[in-house]
User: Fold this.
Amino acid sequence: MNKLGFRLTAQWCLLLWLIRPRSSDYRISFHFIVVRSNFRAARLGVRRADDMHLTLEFGGGLELLFGSQKKHEVEVTSPDDLKEVTMESLLSWIKDNLIKERPEMFVKESSVRPGVLVLINDSDWELCGRLETVLEENDEVIFISTLHGG
Assistant:
Protein backbone atom coordinates (compact mmCIF):
# COMPACT_ATOMS: atom_id res chain seq x y z
CA MET A 1 0.00 0.00 0.00
CA ASN A 2 1.43 3.41 -0.90
CA LYS A 3 1.22 6.73 0.97
CA LEU A 4 -2.30 7.50 -0.18
CA GLY A 5 -3.48 4.16 1.05
CA PHE A 6 -4.47 2.98 -2.42
CA ARG A 7 -4.71 -0.75 -2.68
CA LEU A 8 -5.40 -2.67 -5.85
CA THR A 9 -6.21 -6.34 -5.47
CA ALA A 10 -7.27 -8.98 -7.92
CA GLN A 11 -9.59 -11.74 -6.83
CA TRP A 12 -10.82 -14.78 -8.67
CA CYS A 13 -14.56 -14.86 -9.00
CA LEU A 14 -17.14 -16.88 -10.90
CA LEU A 15 -19.29 -13.83 -11.59
CA LEU A 16 -19.69 -12.58 -15.15
CA TRP A 17 -21.71 -9.45 -14.44
CA LEU A 18 -21.21 -6.06 -12.90
CA ILE A 19 -21.78 -5.97 -9.16
CA ARG A 20 -23.31 -2.75 -7.88
CA PRO A 21 -20.50 -0.53 -6.50
CA ARG A 22 -20.64 0.61 -2.87
CA SER A 23 -18.81 3.79 -1.84
CA SER A 24 -15.11 3.01 -2.34
CA ASP A 25 -15.47 -0.68 -3.14
CA TYR A 26 -15.81 -1.05 -6.91
CA ARG A 27 -16.06 -4.59 -8.14
CA ILE A 28 -16.13 -5.29 -11.85
CA SER A 29 -16.08 -8.90 -12.94
CA PHE A 30 -14.67 -9.94 -16.30
CA HIS A 31 -14.21 -13.64 -16.86
CA PHE A 32 -13.55 -14.64 -13.27
CA ILE A 33 -11.32 -11.69 -12.28
CA VAL A 34 -12.49 -9.01 -9.89
CA VAL A 35 -10.53 -5.82 -9.49
CA ARG A 36 -11.24 -3.86 -6.37
CA SER A 37 -9.84 -0.48 -5.41
CA ASN A 38 -9.89 0.86 -1.89
CA PHE A 39 -8.97 4.27 -0.59
CA ARG A 40 -8.12 5.09 3.01
CA ALA A 41 -11.21 6.70 4.55
CA ALA A 42 -9.27 8.88 6.96
CA ARG A 43 -7.25 10.55 4.21
CA LEU A 44 -9.75 10.86 1.38
CA GLY A 45 -13.07 11.11 3.20
CA VAL A 46 -14.59 7.99 1.67
CA ARG A 47 -15.57 4.83 3.46
CA ARG A 48 -13.81 1.56 2.71
CA ALA A 49 -15.80 -1.65 2.56
CA ASP A 50 -14.02 -3.06 5.62
CA ASP A 51 -14.59 0.02 7.83
CA MET A 52 -17.00 -0.13 10.74
CA HIS A 53 -19.05 2.89 11.80
CA LEU A 54 -19.10 3.46 15.57
CA THR A 55 -20.38 6.23 17.82
CA LEU A 56 -18.02 7.06 20.67
CA GLU A 57 -18.98 9.32 23.58
CA PHE A 58 -16.74 10.63 26.34
CA GLY A 59 -17.97 12.15 29.61
CA GLY A 60 -17.05 12.95 33.20
CA GLY A 61 -14.06 15.01 32.11
CA LEU A 62 -12.67 12.55 29.55
CA GLU A 63 -13.86 14.79 26.73
CA LEU A 64 -11.01 17.19 27.63
CA LEU A 65 -8.55 14.57 26.36
CA PHE A 66 -10.39 14.49 23.02
CA GLY A 67 -10.41 18.17 22.10
CA SER A 68 -13.43 18.96 24.33
CA GLN A 69 -15.69 17.06 21.94
CA LYS A 70 -18.05 14.65 23.69
CA LYS A 71 -19.40 12.71 20.71
CA HIS A 72 -17.38 11.24 17.83
CA GLU A 73 -18.73 9.42 14.77
CA VAL A 74 -15.81 7.30 13.57
CA GLU A 75 -14.94 4.72 10.92
CA VAL A 76 -12.69 2.05 12.45
CA THR A 77 -10.79 -0.46 10.35
CA SER A 78 -10.21 -3.87 11.88
CA PRO A 79 -6.60 -4.96 12.28
CA ASP A 80 -5.21 -6.87 9.27
CA ASP A 81 -5.03 -10.21 11.05
CA LEU A 82 -8.60 -9.98 12.42
CA LYS A 83 -11.93 -9.82 10.63
CA GLU A 84 -13.67 -8.16 13.57
CA VAL A 85 -13.18 -5.11 15.74
CA THR A 86 -12.86 -5.90 19.45
CA MET A 87 -12.79 -3.48 22.36
CA GLU A 88 -9.05 -4.07 22.66
CA SER A 89 -8.46 -3.07 19.04
CA LEU A 90 -10.82 -0.09 19.45
CA LEU A 91 -8.85 1.19 22.45
CA SER A 92 -5.63 0.87 20.47
CA TRP A 93 -7.25 2.75 17.56
CA ILE A 94 -8.47 5.51 19.90
CA LYS A 95 -4.99 5.88 21.39
CA ASP A 96 -3.38 6.10 17.93
CA ASN A 97 -5.98 8.19 16.06
CA LEU A 98 -8.39 10.07 18.31
CA ILE A 99 -6.89 11.11 21.64
CA LYS A 100 -5.42 14.63 21.57
CA GLU A 101 -3.42 14.78 24.80
CA ARG A 102 -2.31 12.74 27.82
CA PRO A 103 -3.22 9.22 26.63
CA GLU A 104 -2.02 7.84 29.98
CA MET A 105 -5.09 9.46 31.60
CA PHE A 106 -7.37 7.26 29.48
CA VAL A 107 -5.47 4.06 28.62
CA LYS A 108 -3.35 1.90 30.89
CA GLU A 109 -1.51 -0.88 29.02
CA SER A 110 -4.18 -2.33 26.68
CA SER A 111 -7.26 -1.39 28.75
CA VAL A 112 -8.89 1.74 30.14
CA ARG A 113 -7.63 3.16 33.42
CA PRO A 114 -9.41 2.19 36.64
CA GLY A 115 -12.25 4.61 37.29
CA VAL A 116 -13.48 4.74 33.69
CA LEU A 117 -16.95 3.26 33.19
CA VAL A 118 -17.42 1.71 29.74
CA LEU A 119 -20.88 1.12 28.27
CA ILE A 120 -21.44 -0.74 25.01
CA ASN A 121 -24.95 -0.07 23.70
CA ASP A 122 -25.94 1.00 27.25
CA SER A 123 -24.62 -2.24 28.83
CA ASP A 124 -21.64 -2.38 31.17
CA TRP A 125 -18.68 -3.87 29.34
CA GLU A 126 -17.96 -6.05 32.40
CA LEU A 127 -21.08 -8.03 31.40
CA CYS A 128 -20.15 -8.15 27.71
CA GLY A 129 -16.64 -9.58 27.95
CA ARG A 130 -14.45 -6.49 28.47
CA LEU A 131 -11.53 -6.41 25.98
CA GLU A 132 -12.73 -9.48 24.05
CA THR A 133 -16.12 -7.92 23.25
CA VAL A 134 -16.72 -7.97 19.49
CA LEU A 135 -18.22 -4.73 18.20
CA GLU A 136 -20.75 -4.53 15.40
CA GLU A 137 -21.67 -1.89 12.84
CA ASN A 138 -23.30 1.23 14.39
CA ASP A 139 -22.55 0.23 17.99
CA GLU A 140 -22.39 3.01 20.58
CA VAL A 141 -19.52 2.96 23.06
CA ILE A 142 -19.58 5.39 25.99
CA PHE A 143 -16.62 6.15 28.27
CA ILE A 144 -17.36 7.99 31.54
CA SER A 145 -14.78 8.94 34.14
CA THR A 146 -16.01 8.29 37.67
CA LEU A 147 -13.06 10.13 39.23
CA HIS A 148 -13.58 13.80 40.06
CA GLY A 149 -11.49 16.38 41.84
CA GLY A 150 -12.77 18.17 44.89
User: Anything to note?
Assistant: The chain has two domains: 7-42, 50-145. Confidence is low (pLDDT under 50) at residues 1-47. Helices lie at 41-44, 87-97, 125-128.
